[in-house]
């Protein structure tokens, strides 16, 4: 199975006490880059969550959002800060002495000062809460994986079609190659005949020139390697798995061979096909950048 690095998955759990939702989305990235955003109280679960995600994600920039709503009435508790209240009272007593104030300090006055009383969430977390979080996380990850697989299948089919077209281009260049050498031989003979006013033509010299030029413009090796690379990419796509990096390397080699063919070409027709071939390779390279 070929999987794209672009995907989205969402799942949620709701009961009378809480709601937990997990969203996963990703884009292409050279390595695995997983970012989890969730309530601070869930930080203790992060290591376990990342361990779960290893079953679903190998490569890509992945953002995971965990939201939590607590419907329990007893979620908040009142906290009394005795130390802060003591400081307030100490300064108020000092003010009364400094200015000769006689008014009595009342608890209701002290209670209005900042941080004397605060509302805080209960720090205790239900021991069974992570079980729910993991369940929702796996459900979201499975949907996320399905989306990536669907996109990956579309990429695979499109690349296979492009590879078939590229194979035809390589075949055409292979068919044209001998004709180019023969055309050069005829051109060379014609020029020599024009230059020689009388006498016989040194056929061995002409043959030697043709051999040298043929070696210079011969693209047999490049054609063999291109065909091999095209078949290798098809095979890898059919086998599936996390093959993005491997495919990227092979496509770089394909691009190198096509560049060599263009540099050796002395024919406009071959040059046109070579440029079209490079365009196809570049399109495949761009698609491979999004394969896991």
Layout of helices and strands:
Layout: E1 7-14, E2 18-27, E3 32-37, H1 46-53, E4 60-70, E5 76-80, H2 82-99, H3 107-111, E6 117-121, H4 129-195, H5 203-217, H6 220-239, H7 244-264, H8 268-288
Parallel strand pairs: 3-4
Antiparallel strand pairs: 1-2, 2-4, 5-6
Helix pairs in contact: 4-5, 4-6, 4-8, 6-7, 7-8
Structure description:
- The chain is of the alpha+beta class and 292 residues long.
- Helices cover 60% and strands 15% of the residues.
- The chain is built from 8 helices and 6 strands; from the N terminus they run E-E-E-H-E-E-H-H-E-H-H-H-H-H.
- It has a 4-stranded mixed sheet. Strands 5-6 form a two-stranded antiparallel sheet.
- Strand 1 and strand 2 (18-27) form a beta hairpin.
- It is elongated, with a radius of gyration of 37 Å.
- The relative contact order is 0.14.
Q: Give the strand order of the largest sheet, numbering strands 1, 2, ... along the chain.
A: 1-2-4-3
Helical segment tally? 8
Low-confidence stretches: none
Largest sheet geometry? 4 strands, mixed
Using the alpha-carbon principal axes, give the shape.
elongated
User: pLDDT average, as an integer?
Assistant: 86
The number of E-state strands comes to 6
Structural class: alpha+beta
Distance between the termini: 10 Å
What portion of residues is helical?
A: 55-70%
Q: Spell out the helices and strands N to C.
A: EEEHEEHHEHHHHH
Taken as a percent bin, the fraction of beta residues is 15-25%
The whole-angstrom Rg is: 37 Å
